[in-house]
Structures are given as C-alpha cells and as structure tokens.
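Hello everyone,

My group is preparing for a crystallization screen and wants a predicted model to guide construct design. The compound we'll soak is nicotinamide-adenine-dinucleotide. Before spending weeks at the bench, it would help to have a computed complex in hand. I've included the protein sequence and the ligand's SMILES below. Output in structure-token form would be ideal because that's what our pipeline reads.
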Amino acid sequence: MSAIQKGAVAIVTGAAGGIGLGLATEAVRRGMRVVISDIREDKLRQAQESLTAMGGEVLAMRADVTSEADVENLAKAAVDRFGQVNMLFNNAGAFVGGLAWETSAAQMDWIVELNFKSVAHGIRAFVPRMIAQGDPCHVVTIASGAGIAVYPGYATYSPTKHAALALTEALYIDLVAEKVGNIGVTIAMPGMIRTEIMEPEKASPSALDLDREARHENATVKRVEQLMTGNLEKAMPPEELARIVFDAAEAGELYILPNHDSDAMKARCQAIGTGRATGVNPYPAIMGQSRLSGAKEDAPIGAPPGQLDKGAGSAAKATEQMEQAQQ
Ligand SMILES: NC(=O)c1ccc[n+]([C@@H]2O[C@H](COP(=O)([O-])OP(=O)(O)OC[C@H]3O[C@@H](n4cnc5c(N)ncnc54)[C@H](O)[C@@H]3O)[C@@H](O)[C@H]2O)c1
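Reply:
Good plan to model first. Here are the tokens for the complex, ready for your pipeline.
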C-alpha cells in the first residue's frame, strides 16, 4: 500500500516556493495533510494561505535544514500536530556557480550543509519514527541530474547532489537489508525546473558574499549561469514535476529523471557512469563539444581528433544534441 493516502501526513522542506510548494500543493490535492517548512517566513505564510485556501490542513513552521535541531523539532511538531508522519520530501537546496579552486570554504560548507547534510538530518529525524509507526511511509530526495553528471562551474552543486543521491541509496539498501518493509524510497534527478533556483542570494547566509556580479567576473561561471537562467523560462513547471514525483512514489520507483531523460542526457550520463566504472575518461570528448566549456567563449567547439575514438564518442554526440536542444 502507498503512503499517499487521504489524511496521511507529508512533510516538505524548502516549501515556501518552487518545487517544494509544488510538492505541497500536490499533496493537498491528493487529500494529504501537510507540514511545510522553510527559512523564508513571509513566503512560507503565503504558501500556507494558498494551501489552506485549497482546503488543505497545513502546519507551517520555520526550519533551517542545515540545523539538525531544527529538523528534529520539525519532526516533533509534525507528530504533535497530526499524530503521524508518512512522507518526507528532502527538497530544500540551492545552486551557486563556482570553479573548483575559487569556491570559498564558507560557500562550500553552506552548500554541503544545505544540499547534503540536510538529507542526513531528515533521514535521522523521520525514518525511526516511520519505522516505529509501521504504516506505509515514503522518503523522497529531490537530488538533481547533477547528481549523476558534472558540469563546469558546478564545483559545489554536483558533489553535494551526488552525495545526497548516494545517501538516499544507502537508506534504500539499509531498509532492504534490515527488512523494513513499510518505507519506500524515491530519488528524483530532475533537469531544469522553472523556479527561483538561479537566485541563491535569497536564502544564503548574509556572511557569504554571493553577489552575482562578483561571481560573474569568471567567464565560465557567468556563461553557465546565463545558460541556465535562459533555460528556466522554457523549463518544466514545478507542478508538473510534483505530479511525476507523486506518481513515481506511488508506483514504488527508486529513480526518476524528470526532464533529464532525453537520449542526449542519458548518453552523457551513461558515458560518465561507464567511465567511472571502467577507467575511461569521458570528459575530453564531452568538453570538446560543450558550450559550457566556454571559458574562452569564442573557442571552436569540437573534440580534438582521436578523443572520440576512446570510448566516449557517444558522450560527445550526446553533448552536441543536448546543447542543440537547449538553444
Ligand atoms: N530548479 C531546478 O532546475 C532544479 C533541478 C534539479 C534539482 N533541483 C533541486 O530542487 C530543490 C528545490 O529547488 P527549487 O528549484 O525549488 O529552488 P527554489 O530556490 O525556488 O526553492 C528552494 C527553497 O529552499 C529554501 N531554503 C533555502 N535554504 C534553506 C534552508 N537552509 N532551510 C530551509 N529551506 C531553505 C528557499 O527559501 C526556497 O524556498 C533543490 O534541492 C534543488 O537543488 C532544482
């Protein structure tokens, strides 16, 4: 039986807007009671009002997912209010562009805490309660296509999404090994979704100088962020993603790749995965074709001769197709 039932309780982190609000809205649409949390309290109140207006039973609570204590308090508050927890959406997260050697330790700490350790806090706070309940429950991690691929300027985002993905896989196999049968696990690896993801300043600690202009002094970071921002307008709406995620959870699927499942994306990810497993470097071919490699924006796009024969030709072709699709 699925955790998605009328009256069951869904908890969504980072629910003041974007994908989180889309997930909370879908939960209400499916008759679930919801607990929404975020650090942006004004937006969270607005979200609560809109969900309540839909007829939803909603608890809204400020919780910073980088704080283990806040996440534990969120679980306690959910149980105090509704008596149970059935679905946890580890959703809160942020993207900030940056090169591997230019990203400050403070910025890396922030993204590691927000995109990765938050998932660990969520699992620790909610899974033992779900095990004790014994009724149908589900944990969803909103990872990213960047959890299986690495792009230029993704020095914080890709590693943290890889880690969030692996931790959620660890949860899945530990539940299987321990014969815990009442908790399903789903990992979403979306491509671009139309949200405020490209405005990290809205939720970053004030101590961090994440000024967009300063970041854009680097041509690669500027180009990557501009490409991504340009793609947002035609990206998948969060409501559509939410429906896909709920359907996948209901069907018991472990992995879903919404908007990241074109042949080109798949070939690129397969080339990276195969490279890791077999010791073949896929990146010369990928980067040889990539607009994202534009540190020198006018550099001709094309893999150096010979690189395509080294087992990564499909990745180069895939990258070309992907970039044509993004235009
Ligand atoms: N938009 C995309 O293209 C995309 C693609 C793949 C994955 N994702 C992932 O989806 C998730 C949601 O992102 P989004 O696109 O909706 O972005 P968004 O910026 O619109 O929403 C993120 C929400 O998280 C909240 N938040 C930030 N720091 C927080 C903290 N410390 N504690 C609690 N809440 C916090 C923000 O206030 C915001 O409401 C993220 O994990 C992101 O990495 C997004």
